[in-house]
Amino acid sequence: MTFTQAELDYLATQHLGRLATTGPDGVLQNSPTGFRHNPETGTIDIYGRAMGTTRKFHNVRANGQAAFVVDDLASVDPWRVRGVEIRGVAEAVEDHDPPSPYMSHEIIRIHPRRIISWGVDPAQAGMEGRDV
């Protein structure tokens, strides 16, 4: 299993993350996006209304790299942050059945190569990173 059960449980409660890509000119882009974990492929799938026309989609098509972060504040008193960062190989997928009719048929699919998580598992002390 790529993700731990605690990471999957956390990701299932979240609706937005931030996708980082690099353009052909080396300029970084960071975009808020909706997502879902795809249990069939073990990937993070990024959807959107017109995904195929976006800079992030073209960046992924050009270099196949992305990082994605989902995080939140579980509490401010006491201060408790939690999150998951996924770094990996990304693909620009066309002609994919969207999860809802208002989303496009293009998605960005991230195949995790490194996962870093913090605060999502009560048994975990601090930040934990691993290559997958």
Written overview of the protein:
- By secondary structure, this protein is mainly beta.
- The chain has one domain (5-123): Pnp Oxidase, Chain A, CATH 2.30.110.10.
- It is built from two helices and seven strands, in the order αβββαββββ.
- It has helices at 5-12, 55-63; strands at residues 16-22, 28-38, 43-47, 65-76, 79-93, 107-118, 127-131.
- A six-stranded antiparallel beta barrel has the order 1-2-3-6-5-4.
- The longest helix has 9 residues, at 55-63.
- The protein starts with a helix and ends with a strand.
- The model has no long low-confidence stretch (mean pLDDT 94).
Care to give the gist of this entry?
This protein has 132 residues and is mostly beta strands. The protein has helices spanning 5-12, 55-63, and strands spanning 16-22, 28-38, 43-47, 65-76, 79-93, 107-118, 127-131.
Structure keywords:
single chain; 132 residues; mainly beta; Pnp Oxidase, Chain A; six-stranded antiparallel barrel; 2 helices; 7 strands
> Numbering strands along the chain, what is their spatial order in the largest sheet?
1-2-3-6-5-4
Query: Based on DSSP secondary structure assignment, what is the total number of beta strands?
Result: 7
Q: Report the radius of gyration as a whole number of Å.
A: 15 Å
CATH superfamily: Electron Transport, Fmn-binding Protein, Chain A
Low-confidence stretches: none
Largest sheet: 6 strands, antiparallel, barrel
Overall number of domains: 1
Distance between the termini: 9 Å
Helix content percent band:
10-25%
Average predicted local confidence, pLDDT = 94
Secondary-structure element order, N to C: HEEEHEEEE
> Number of helix segments?
2
Q: Within the CATH hierarchy, at the fold level, what is the topology?
A: Pnp Oxidase, Chain A
Just give the CATH class. Answer: Mainly Beta
Q: Please name the CATH architecture.
A: Roll
- Please report which band the strand proportion falls in: under 5%, 5-15%, 15-25%, 25-35%, 35-45% or over 45%: over 45%
Q: Assign an overall shape.
A: globular
Structural class: mainly beta
Domain Pyridoxamine 5'-phosphate oxidase N-terminal: 5-98
InterPro entries: F420H2_bilvrd_red/Heme_oxyg, MSMEG_5819/OxyR, Pyridox_Oxase_N, Split_barrel_FMN-bd
Region (Disordered): 22-41
Keywords: Oxidoreductase
